[in-house]
Design goal:
By secondary structure, the protein is α/β, with parallel strands linked by helices. It contains nine helices and 16 strands. Helices cover 22% and strands 29% of the residues. Strand 13 (261-267) and strand 14 form a beta hairpin. The two termini are 26 Å apart.
Length: 318
């Protein structure tokens, strides 16, 4: 069941049970393979390579994934430090599962910052993130103000993501992340078996694409929002994270500490706002007003001071 360089969907044999019927049929599943990310110092500094990460990912957009990972994890501080990205051709048959990122300047990377290899699974992110203090010490700063979107436009963002979820449409087993602006248009989407990988691919696409948008965009994700999703969004300067699913408690804490807007259970009928409601215009026109929903908790959850602008538990992760 080996995949090729661009193969994101794999056909497999499956045995199906439907009611009292049994059948054998083919099925499509999302491809998953390891990707090793290496960082190469410039020739002027000796050209040494360092293995930084091994992540399980869906093949495709590998250069973007590598660049985005280095930036969102603070291994490389600035996109201008990246001189180029290539597949490592000396490791057959794993040629397309090893990517080397070459740095432009020697001072752009401190080898001591990667004293151990990261191991990332497709379900959770980089291990060893102990606290919000550790992330702040790593260089993560509160996100700047300036982004605003109207309530009625925000409700359309999850649906605007769906047309670009082509692999999800065929497999039902992959996550998506996309960027959107105040108009609600979702204009850059990437998919991956790992939700954190999908975000890294989006960040990497911006970094390798050259011109940055005039204003930092919002990030929409097709599943739940976790601490790591918020961390990566903050490192990229995204002021708002909109999730189709639920947030974790640490994601909420992160958003509040780093001046981010966090929205969960987002759909046309409503959504929950857990932090940064001031970036959403038009909430004061709703029944009860912006202050009327404070303190309400989702069924079975502890009370929170987050604003609920929609059904308390009206959505579920895909």
């Amino acid at each position: 069941m080996a995949t090729t360089r661009r193969r994101r969907i794999v056909r497999v044999r499956s045995e199906r049970v439907r009611g009292e019927r049994f059948s054998v049929r083919g099925d499509h599943v999302a491809a998953e393979e390891p990707l090793e990310v290496r960082l190469q110092e410039p020739a002027s500094a000796g050209g040494r390579e360092h293995v930084v990460s091994v992540t399980m990912r869906t093949p495709g957009d590998d250069f973007e994934l590598a660049a985005g990972f280095l930036l969102t994890e603070g291994v490389v501080a600035d996109r201008s430090a990246i001189a180029g990205v290539r597949y490592c051709r000396s490791v057959e048959p794993q040629e397309y599962n090893v990517v080397t990122v070459t740095l432009r300047t020697a001072g752009a990377f401190d080898p001591a910052s990667v004293s151990r290899n990261f191991y990332v699974t497709s379900a959770c992110g980089v291990c060893g993130k102990a606290s919000l203090d550790a992330v702040e010490a790593q260089g993560c700063k509160p996100v700047a103000n300036g982004f605003e979107i109207r309530d009625e436009i925000l409700r359309t963002v999850p649906d605007a993501l769906k047309p670009s979820q082509r692999v999800f449409g065929r497999t039902g087993g992959i996550h998506a992340a996309g960027l959107f602006g105040p108009s609600g248009e979702v204009w850059l989407v990437r998919e991956d078996v790992g939700r954190h990988n999908a975000v890294d691919k989006v960040v990497g696409a911006l970094a390798l694409g050259g011109a940055a948008p005039e204003r930092p965009p919002g990030l929409v994700v097709s599943g739940r929002s976790s601490f790591e999703i918020l961390q990566k969004a903050a490192m990229a300067g995204f002021p708002m994270v909109v999730a189709v699913g639920a947030p974790s408690s640490l994601a909420v804490d992160f958003a509040r500490r780093f001046n981010m807007t966090l929205v969960g259970f987002a759909k046309r009928s409503g959504y929950n706002v857990y932090a940064g409601a001031e970036r959403i215009a038009g909430l004061d026109r709703l029944s009860g007003g912006a202050d009327g929903g404070r303190g309400a908790a989702a069924p079975g959850a502890e009370a929170s001071d987050g604003l609920q602008a929609g059904p308390s538990n009206g959505g579920r992760e895909r």
